[in-house]
Structure formats: C-alpha cells, structure tokens
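Q: Here's a chain of 95 amino acids. Please give me its 3D structure as tokens.
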Amino acid sequence: MCGGSRDGALLRVALANALIAEDNKIEAIAELRRALEFDPDYSAAWKQLGKLLADSGDAAMAMAAYKQGITAAQKRGDKQAEKEMAVFLKRLQKA
C-alpha cells in the first residue's frame, strides 16, 4: 500500500503505531515524518512524533515537534491536541 494510490498520512500513522507495538521506535519516527509530508497539519502525528522523540532522549527535536504540532492544531481548531502538546512542551522545557 505504501507508495500506491492509498498511501497517505493515515496509513503512515497506522504503520507507526504497528512499529511502536513492536518496539521499533526509530522506524516509527520515520513513518510519522512521512505522514507529516503528506499532511503537515496532522496534529495527532505531531503529538506522537514529539512523544517518541522525547522518549528517545531527543528533547530538542521533541520540543520542535510539539511547537509545530501546536501550530498545526491551531490551524485545524484541534483544541485538545493543542492543550496536550502545550503541557508536554512545558514539561520538556522545565527538564
């Protein structure tokens, strides 16, 4: 399905979730980045990317992902995702 007519952000996020379940965070991060190439305003993908980056110890990249995710959430009116990412961002900034 990847690379075909059904390829897109939703498919890539689903693949990332499957990779997370297999504890393959590096490939999951790559799939989330691919998802965001299809839809840069997909706030759930930004939130998940930020979490994986933070869990992997890359606080700077996680903060950047959360900031971009907050912007994406604001564009789409996704208040819940915006609030959650703002909380995660503040936690990283304090650490």
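Q: Can you summarize the key feature?
A: The radius of gyration is 13 Å.
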